[in-house]
Amino acid sequence: MPKRQVLLSSSSLYKDGSYLEHVRPYIEKLLTKNNAKHVLFIPYALASGDHDGYTKKVETILGKWGFQVDGIHKSPDQIASIKKAQAIFIGGGNTFLLLKHLYDKKLVEAIRSRIIDDGIPYIGSSAGTNVAARSIQTTNDMPIICPGSFDALKLVPFHINPHYLDPDTNSTHRGETREERILEFLMVNERPCLALREGTCLIIEGKDATLVGPANAILFRKGKEPTEFPPGTNFGFLFDECKD
């Protein structure tokens, strides 16, 4: 049975680097080892609706690396495009809008099947990482639209919080910190949440999920203190911990 091959990045940009530059080695390795020369890009997280412009941005970058990019929005049969895809990439934007599009176009099960059953590579960044998780309940995004369900692609059985920000002890902001919001989520939800700081990503092969990048990740579990894990950690234990 094919192994799932998933790259989940906290963000598309890191510090002063160009778009996707900090994850370039991982993307190139993932696509090359699968002989995936064509990437199907799903631009539906972009609130402005400029799907052509968003796809062109991705096409320009990946094209320099030797890969061809096709925007799914141009396809007359989007499920057929998913069934033929060599690799799938979903970029950042608004997670609620993205999931709404995926449900409306009946793409959720088609994408999940290609990744889980067929083992083609999946690349997610920001909102694309959120929808790869069990649900989108730990996104930071504004719920600008109702997707009908918070259930997402379930490429991993736990929750993820991209763009995790540590509390700023010098800030005058009196609202909830990211940590407080995740802990609040866990008061009424059982499955853990893995918080990814900027510049980091998870590389998932089968049930191995290795953290790479410049910073620790934080694992939040219900009823337990948040725990820091360094780059190189294999979070595969969460697949056993989160069995249905």
Report on the structure:
It contains 8 helices and 11 strands. The protein is α/β, with parallel strands linked by helices and about 240 residues long. It has one domain: Class I glutamine amidotransferase (GATase) domain (Rossmann fold, 3-Layer(aba) Sandwich), CATH 3.40.50. The strands form 2 sheets. A 7-stranded mixed beta sheet has the order 3-2-4-5-1-8-9, with helices on both faces. α2 links the parallel β2 and β3. The mean pLDDT is about 95. It is found in: Cytoplasm. This is dipeptidase E. One of its GO terms (cellular component) is cytoplasm. Belongs to the peptidase S51 family.
Rg, rounded, reads: 17 Å
Strand runs, count: 11
Helix/strand/pairing category: alpha/beta
Q: Which stretches of 5+ consecutive residues score pLDDT under 50?
A: none
What keywords describe this structure?
single chain; 244 residues; alpha/beta; Rossmann fold; four-stranded mixed beta sheet; 11 strands; protease; hydrolase; dipeptidase; dipeptidase activity
Short description:
The chain is of the alpha/beta class. The protein has eight helices and eleven strands.
Task: Please specify the SSE layout and strand pairing.
Blueprint lengths: L4 E5 L14 H10 L4 E5 L8 H14 L3 E4 L6 H7 L3 E3 L4 H10 L3 H10 L3 E5 L1 H4 L28 E6 L13 H10 L5 E5 L3 E5 L2 E5 L4 E4 L6 E3 L7 H5 L3
